[in-house]
Design brief:
Protein name: SDR family oxidoreductase
Largest sheet: 7 strands, parallel
Pfam families: adh_short_C2
Number of helices: 7
Number of domains: 1
CATH class: Alpha Beta
Number of strands: 7
Distance between the termini: 37 Å
CATH topology: Rossmann fold
Strand content: 5-15%
CATH architecture: 3-Layer(aba) Sandwich
Structural class: alpha/beta
Family: Belongs to the short-chain dehydrogenases/reductases (SDR) family.
Keywords: Oxidoreductase
Helix content: 25-40%
Organism: Nonomuraea maheshkhaliensis
Strand order of the largest sheet: 3-2-1-4-5-6-7
Length: about 250
């Protein structure tokens, strides 16, 4: 028996990296899992096959998380397919690192980053809370850069993640009367395609962590499962740092 048996979860950006690891970890605990993807249909299909091999129901939905309407529509599509929704994991995110005074600063890139990292997360939360049962779970993947920048060129990205944390803390207050918890995982440098451990920025990032290594997607997924489970019923409005000591 898994601690998430009979639950339905949706993980945005679930075709790879932290999203795929979180989807698989939730399935290991018995949850049926839907994932969203933007363009990686083949990868999403492969993740669904892995999920189904664990004996749970699974589905993938194409949804561009830069469009708040599609982010909200995803929530309704999952409920239509599975009949309910218990756990919302806002994982999809983008990162653009350019100093605000650089000639390379791109306003359209900023707008998309804000939409994916913040505006569409808000849209998904607003769509989900009326459909979640009492005791439902909302978990968003933030970043340590949201509270400790540490590098040039991160102002725009950091702003979106800081906004996400503030909104989540407010939403936790608003939804507490129904036992719906709203929490953020503040991730550190995780070995993904977006920021590989052998990438060009690794020599800059690694010295800022106490543990001196990149994290694994599965280490973030473990935090997702914990916050989604019954043991975390008294945790809300929290920021769980899984960052290898970046914020230490």
């Amino acid at each position: 028996m898994g601690k998430l048996d009979n639950k339905v979860a949706v993980v945005t950006g679930g075709s790879r990296g932290i999203g795929a690891a979180s989807a698989l970890a939730l399935a290991d605990e018995g949850a049926d899992v839907a994932i969203s993807y933007s363009s990686s249909a083949d990868r999403a299909k492969a993740v669904v096959a892995e999920l189904e091999a664990k004996g749970v129901r699974a589905a993938a939905f194409q949804a561009d998380q830069s469009d708040p309407a599609k982010a909200a529509g995803l929530v309704h599509s999952v409920v239509e397919r599975f009949g309910r929704l218990d756990i919302l994991v806002n994982n999809a995110g983008v990162g653009v690192g350019v100093p605000i005074d650089s000639e390379l600063a791109d306003e359209s890139a900023f707008d998309r980053q804000l939409a994916v990292n913040y505006t569409s997360v808000v849209a998904a939360i607003r769509a989900a809370f009326p459909l979640l049962p009492d005791g439902g779970r909302i978990i968003s993947i933030g970043s340590g850069v949201g509270t400790r920048v540490g590098f040039i060129g991160m102002a725009d990205y950091a702003g979106t993640k800081s906004a996400l944390e503030g909104y989540s803390q407010g939403a936790a207050r608003d939804l507490a009367h129904r036992g719906i918890t709203v929490n953020v995982i503040q991730s550190g440098f995780i070995d993904t395609e977006m920021n590989p451990a052998d990438g060009p920025t690794a020599p800059i990032f690694l010295p800022t962590t106490a543990m001196g290594r990149y994290g694994r997607p599965e280490e973030i997924a473990a935090g997702v499962v914990f916050l989604a489970g019954p043991q975390a019923s008294y945790i809300t409005g929290a920021v769980l740092r899984i960052d290898g000591g970046y914020g230490a």
